[in-house]
Amino acid sequence: MKTASASGKVILFGEHAVVYGRPALAVPLSEMRARAGVETREDGRVVVNARDLEREIEVVEGVHDPLATIVRVTLDKLGKRAGIEIAVDSDIPMASGFGSGAAISTAIVRAVAGFFEVELSRAEIAELVYETEKEYHGTPSGIDNSVIAYESAIRFVRRTASTSGDSMSGGGAEVTPFPIARPFHLVIANTGIASPTKITVGDVRRGWQENPARYDALFDTIRGIVQEAEDALASGENERLGDLMDRNQLALIELGVSSSEIEWLLDAGRSAGAGGGKLSGGGRGGNVIFYAPESKAAKMKEALLEAGAVSVIVTKVGGGVVED
Ligand code: PMV
């Protein structure tokens, strides 16, 4: 059996504005992973077996399912046909802003390419996974498939002249792995509320259509915050990150994608010593992230669980940049 895995991810700064051509920063979460294993099927069928979901999907013409799509586009890209069974499982919570769908798809592409002994570049993998992101999300920017396929901290910009927020090819993005001068700790609390990104992205779209000037100004504010965050990360001035997260969160509240549960957890984390925090991903649920001094992380974890988080992860962000 040929096996492969892919990490989860969090968006540090810039979600939603990224759909409208502004930059965003995201990092992989290597400790939570999706896995895929491929082996030959003698009956010639192509089957995806998602054990966690208790689903078995046969990849045949007319089946519309992201798991079938990723296998189909990967086989097309490789120019291969054979009976294969693809087993997938994942420890990444779904619809929580951790990129579970993109991670499962990335693991499948890596395992299928490995099975046929073809090497795909990270950009090629990101482009294939983008095809399924469209089925999960509607009009994804492409940031999830990129950060997971690159498995590196990335600055991401949709390369689009217009700010219509319409879907575009993942290959049209500008993906730049960026260095983090000094590693830092991130505390990530899951609200436990599954909130499909498609819905919040659609709501922001409607708001933008009704009042483009107001929304574009908010997206520009977020762009400025992302720029400051990049400078802080590059120069090791990590202490600035908390305040920048708080400012990004204010803009996300204005965009209408926060919720009382998110604000409740943000208050609990800040009271327990976080330098600052924000929602991460689509919003209205999913997870919140905090910039945390290491000495405060344990106390924060306890406080967040007490405040109702269903799980809390403390993770260290930073490390080398891998070049393609
Ligand atoms: O909910 P997530 O973690 O998949 O992130 C969505 C990020 C958005 O900017 C809201 C949408 C997108 O496609 O970039």
Describe what you observe in this structure.
With 324 residues, the protein is of the alpha+beta class. The protein has nine helices and eleven strands. The strands form two sheets. Strands 1, 2, 3, 4, 5, 6 and 7 form a seven-stranded mixed beta sheet that branches. It has a four-stranded antiparallel beta sheet with strand order 9-10-8-11. α1 packs antiparallel against α3 and α5 (197-210) crosses α6 (212-235). The radius of gyration is 19 Å and the shape is globular. Bound molecules: (3R)-3-hydroxy-3-methyl-5-(phosphonooxy)pentanoic acid. (3R)-3-hydroxy-3-methyl-5-(phosphonooxy)pentanoic acid binds at residues 11, 15-16, 18-19, 97, 99, 137, 140-141, 143-144, 197, 201, 281-282, 286.
Mean pLDDT across every amino acid position = 92
Can you write the helix and strand succession as a string? EEEEHEHHHEEEHHHHEEHE
How much helicity do the residues have?
Answer: 25-40%
3D shape: globular
What fraction of residues sit in β-strands? 15-25%
Count of beta strands: 11
How many helical stretches? 9
Radius of gyration: 19 Å
Query: What compounds are bound to the protein?
Result: (3R)-3-hydroxy-3-methyl-5-(phosphonooxy)pentanoic acid
First and last CA, distance: 26 Å
Give the topology, please.
Elements: E1 2-13, E2 24-40, E3 46-50, E4 55-58, H1 66-78, E5 84-90, H2 100-115, H3 122-137, H4 143-150, E6 154-158, E7 173-177, E8 184-190, H5 197-210, H6 212-235, H7 240-255, H8 260-271, E9 276-280, E10 287-292, H9 297-306, E11 311-317
Parallel strand pairs: 3-5
Antiparallel strand pairs: 1-2, 2-5, 2-6, 3-4, 6-7, 8-10, 8-11, 9-10
Helix pairs in contact: 1-2, 1-3, 2-3, 3-4, 5-6, 6-7, 8-9
The structure holds (3R)-3-hydroxy-3-methyl-5-(phosphonooxy)pentanoic acid.
(3R)-3-hydroxy-3-methyl-5-(phosphonooxy)pentanoic acid is lined by residues 11, 15-16, 18-19, 97, 99, 137, 140-141, 143-144, 197, 201, 281-282, 286.
